[in-house]
Amino acid sequence: MTAPVLLDRQGPIALLTLNRPEKLNALNYATNDLIVAYLDELERDDAIRAVVLTGAGRRAFSAGGDIHEFSRSIAEGIEVAVRDFCRRGQAMTSRLESFSKPIIAAVNGLAYGGGCEITEAVHLAVACESALFAKPEINIGIPPTFGGTQRLPRLAGRKRALELLLTGDSFSAQRALNLGLINQMVPDGKELEAAFALAERILRHSPLAASRILTAVTRGLNTTIAEGLMIEREQFARMAATRDVHEGLTAWIDRRTPAYDGA
After folding, report:
1. Mean model confidence pLDDT for the chain
2. Which of 97, 120, 137, 191 is catalytic?
3. For 121-153, what is each residue's pLDDT tens digit?
4. Which residues pair with 5 in a beta bridge?
5. 171 contact partners, CB below 8 Å, separation of at least 6
């Protein structure tokens, strides 16, 4: 059987590809579990400094949760459905959000439901012009379950998010850009190239500093400003004694390109 997620290491960048194109890359339980497993593996791999996540084929990034599989869990009862579908999906998007290395989504088509929630959870996102987003869960009588009721309002604002959550209407890549769901919109077929180019711009800098920034932003976003500033101080303190800080300062004074070693 073909794996539902493919991993391809391309130098310091890992490419994860959702690999169920015949199902529009729907997120079944095996897909969610394998995303988490790969992230665990890549986090331990010091050679990998960034991750790009995309979908196989040209039709979809991901059309969302696998409804056929989910409906079987619903039939087994609430506890099973919450455990197998909701908690599993939330664990996957939370792992993406809290990952210690930059993750960039390259949205290459439909990003509905769970596909949209992945886009919300990752650190950065690029989408092709024809990409189409939606929060369609209300059409089958449920709220979003992979974090969409929480992350989209934080990205887009309460009223704009509620319009999308309560209508289930699809929206364009341009609107996703305007809402802050994606960072960049590019011509069709250029999204992967753009995501890798964005990753390369990040790789110019200290991997430790990037990780400290990701931690400070992710942890601080849902706290008070005072708590967030304390988190910021903690992350600065963790960096201050590293070789990367001394290399960065020395290179700036010497007017040369720094050579970071991630230590």
Report:
1. 95
2. 137
3. 999 999 999 999 999 999 999 999 999 999 999
4. 18
5. 132, 133, 134, 164, 179
SS3 annotation, 14-50: EEEEECCHHHCCCECHHHHHHHHHHHHHHHHCCCCCE
- Would you call 137 a catalytic residue per the annotation? yes
CB distance 203 to 49 below 8 Å: yes
Torsion angle (degrees, nearest 10) of CA 178, 180, 181, 182:
80
Cβ proximity of 120 and 139 under 8 Å:
no
CA distance 256 to 242: 19
State pTM to two decimals: 0.95
31: CB partners within 8 A, 6+ apart = 4, 5, 18, 20, 25, 66
Structure confidence by residue, pLDDT tens digits, 49-91: 999 999 999 999 999 999 899 889 889 998 988 988 889 999 9
Is position 117 annotated as part of the catalytic site?
Answer: yes
In this structure, what is the dihedral angle of CA atoms 203, 204, 209, 210, given to the nearest 10 degrees? Answer: -30
Determine which one of 97, 117, 120, 191 is catalytic. 117
| CA atoms of 31 and 92, how far apart (whole Å) | 10
Q: Give residue 21's pLDDT band: very low, low, confident or very high (50, 70, 90).
A: very high
